[in-house]
Amino acid sequence: MNRKLKHWAGSALIALLSGGVIAAAAAAQSSEAVSEAGGKSLVQYLQKGEGRITDPAPGWDYLWTEVIIDITVIGILFALMTAYFIWRYRRVPGGPTVGSGPTLSTAAAVGWVVIPTFVFMADDFFIAANGWVLWNKYRDVPAERLEVQLESGMYSWDYTYPNGARTQNELIVPAGKPVLLRMTSRDTLHSHFIPDFRVKEDSMPGRVTYLWFLPREAGKEHVITCAEYCGVMHSYMAGRVIVKTPEEFKAWYDATGDSTRKSS
Amino acid sequence: MNLKEWIFTTDHKRVGVLYLIGSIAAFIVAGVMALLMRLELSAVGPTITSNPTSYNVWLYAHGAVMILGFQIPALTGFFANYCIPLMIGAKDVAFPRVNALSVWLFYVGIVLALLTFFVPDPPDVMWTGYPPYSTITTGNTALYTFTVLILGFASIIGGVNFLTTIAYMRAPGLTWNKLNIFVWCTLAAFVLQLIFVPVLGTAVTLISMDKYLGTHFFDPTRGGDVLTYQNLFWFYSHPAVYVIFLPFFGVLFEIVATFAKNRVFNYKAVVFGGIGGIVLLAGEVWVHHLYVSGMVDWIRVGQMVTTLLISVPVGLMLIGLVGTLYKGSITFETPMLYALGVLFLFLIGGLTGIPLAVTSLTLHLSDTYYVVGHFHYVMAVAGTFSIFAGVYYWFPKMTGRMYNEFWGKLGFWITFVGTNIVFWTMMDIGVKGMPRRYYDYAHFAQFEPAHKLMTIGAVILGVGFAIALLNWIIGAIKGKPAGNNPWGSMSLEWTTVSPPPHGNWPSPPSVSEEWTPYAYGRR
Ligand code: HEM
Ligand SMILES: [Cu+2]
Ligand SMILES: [Cu+2]
């Protein structure tokens, strides 16, 4: 085989191989998660259990694992190739003292652009599509929900419930019902971050932003923390989501209508 | 050495060295800030200061000085000045006096940045300066504004100079297709600077107008909008990432080609696909910094796609770099060690950016230590290692002397260990929920051991950097004479004496038909 043809074929082979490995890894990953999730893809995973409320938080973990596997495979491929080249082409006594890297033919040069471009783009679009599916989940709020107004300020989270009940730094919610926060700020930027529910969004003066999550287990508490630098005491701007049973919640809610409840 | 000669110099090499000294000084100051922050975070609760504002000021100074005072000036100030005229066979830059103005403006900027530690109410607005806080803080936002303006201005007049120099002052026979990759990278970086710095200038000017002159650009109660600032800021500051990335990749290409004694793999793909692709995409991805800022949904999804597509040109450049090792004859002196270190660690930095491109994943990751870990892998690790690699690489050219190889390698390995301890741990606790810009973490006390570990890592890292700095100082004073071309490179800068005289060559060089800066072992 002539040399140029060999380079060309070699290039194509490596590119296709790496593309194949990425695709295979992605497929293996989804099928592995399939058994666990009972679905076939992120879409099906999120839609599983028609009629039941599903929330984005487990979807986040799912997509995170998928993306981490994807980038780990790419990273290891590149690292192995680099390590192999470094070892294989190190200068040895008596060996060549100059390199003999190939001059690529036009076809090979173009191939080395087009093929990797398509491989990378395939992976990009695969990730983007999944990201978009999960994104829609995050932004479409179920109709049946508890809607709470949040006003953030230096340095507290002030919640107002539909019946006028107010709390500070304690977001009291019933288990099993989606909670929608409509957020604004009376001074600087803040970001209402609940790590356990994998969600945050900035609040600011002049605009209303929102986020939602699904508290699952009664009796649990979840840290709320401020994720956007808002001033001197930024790192102390914390609160808790307190999840009650629907009955407990109702009792509390009915008792506190239009009163103000303060706590630290 | 005559001080007056240095102050009034218009020689591009001296201007370059002045840039190097200033940016390394900035690196040391900002590095000390990093150590102070790490000490403060080594335990829950107040440790070395009980005033959160002190921490916030250190963080402001660390971020602003590392980016605006160290990385951008080191890459587009020092390397560009020192190397570009030599690489293209020119006697000097096109406008030597403008060049001198640029370096002294840079020093004014550095002095302004250092004033942070002397004014009564130092800026505490972070390097991003987001309003409303930056317009209501008692801290000195004006100082932030002027520091950014001066440093930005210094950089764009440098840009005009280098675009002209590269276009008109190449040696006879040195066609565009024979330019060093580093020259292409710098050219692209300056194009980005020229387009985008004015936007940053506007943004930071408007916050000071809001704060001191009573305007309401960002005040919604008077018809302004807080988000506009963030858009303007990142409209510049994302491309700024490439202003750092491109030249440091350029430096890597020079080093890898020289120590592998090999031609650059698929030169045109690197230049037009890689560098060109980045320039094209640079301005369309800024919203990935605003994924949780309350932007409309469609633009968040749209820029997820453009952001992910950045992987294409970056991938092409990486293939070019790794491909240059293929069939090389590789040796492992200190500059190459740093460069190869980047080849591995940049994979971590680059690939951990992919989750951050995905809008839905950032709803959890944004503004956490995961982000801090990610961008430190890109800038503090890959960027800084490349700068160190480059300084080691051109050290014999600049000084005519050799640094100490043993200490060079030792410094590298210590730094390598330290960076991974610090920045890997950052990403780990970030995914678990640790938010960034925290003076204290009382409600995340479970991360205390990780924070302790990072403090230890930061000390190790500091030792590694200190070894490199001392190695340069000692080498410059009493290193062994290095000869004109110790690495056996083909590139033009090695054809003159070390250090090169004013005017660079006794008679201007010209290059032959077959010559390229990477024409090793032609068959
Ligand atoms: C030398 C070792 C370094 C250490 C130990 C270190 C450590 C840190 C720490 C602890 C933070 C604060 C995180 C927070 O509170 O949110 C930080 C922020 C930052 N660092 Fe570094 N850093 C180092 C080097 C660098 C370098 C070389 C750069 C160069 C670009 C850099 C750029 C930044 C930036 C831009 C920020 C963000 C500032 C902000 O949030 O406004 N760092 N670093
Ligand atoms: Cu805050
Ligand atoms: Cu960006």
What is this structure, in a nutshell?
In chain A, 45% of the residues lie in helices and 21% in strands. With 264 residues, chain A is α+β, with helices and mostly antiparallel strands.
The percent range for helix content of chain B is 55-70%
**Strand pairing plus helix content of chain A: what structural class?**
alpha+beta
Ligands in the structure? protoporphyrin IX containing FE, copper (II) ion
Q: Proportion of β residues of chain A?
A: 15-25%
The tally of beta strands of chain A, per DSSP, is: 10
Strand content of chain B: under 5%
CATH class of the largest domain in chain A: Mainly Beta
Oligomer: heterodimer
> Which strand order spans the largest sheet of chain A, edge to edge or round the barrel?
3-2-1-5-8
Determine the CATH topology of the largest domain in chain A.
Answer: Immunoglobulin-like
What's the helix-strand series of chain B?
Answer: HHHHHHHHHHHHHHHHH
Roughly how many Å apart are the termini of chain B?
A: 46 Å
The CATH architecture category of the largest domain in chain A equals: Sandwich
Rg over alpha carbons of chain A: 27 Å
Written as H for each helix and E for each strand, in order along the chain, the element string of chain A is HHHHEEEEEEEEEEH
Mean pLDDT value of chain A? 84
Query: Any idea how many domains of chain A?
Result: 2
